[in-house]
Amino acid sequence: MKRRGTARKEPVINLRQKVCIACDRPFSWRKKWKRCWAEVKFCSKRCQSVGRRQFRQDNNNGK
Asked: CA angle, corner 10, sides to 8 and 13, nearest 5?
C-alpha cells in the first residue's frame, strides 16, 4: 500500500529559534508561521498583548 501525504518533518534540533521581545525566552519555528517567520516577534498571544501595552506606555511617557 502506498502512503499519501507524508511530509518530511524537520528534526526538532534543526528548527529555527528566536527570542521573544516581551519575555526574553527562546521559541521555535511553528508551521503556522511558515509565511511570516521574519515578522514574528512574540512567542504567544499573551506576550504580544503585554509587548504592545509596554510599547504604548513607553510612547505616551515620551510625549
From this structure: 160
Q: How far apart are CA 28 and CA 15, in angstroms?
A: 6
Burial-class residue 43 by CB neighbours within 10 Å (0-12, 13-18, 19+).
buried
Distance CA 36, CA 57 (A): 27
Most confident residue range from 8-22, 31-45, 49-63? 31-45
Compute the distance between CA of residue 27 and CA of residue 44 in angstroms, rounded to an integer.
9
Q: Could you give the C-alpha distances from 11 to 7, 14, 43, in angstroms and in order? A: 12, 6, 20
> What pLDDT does 58 receive?
74
Place of cell 534543526: 14
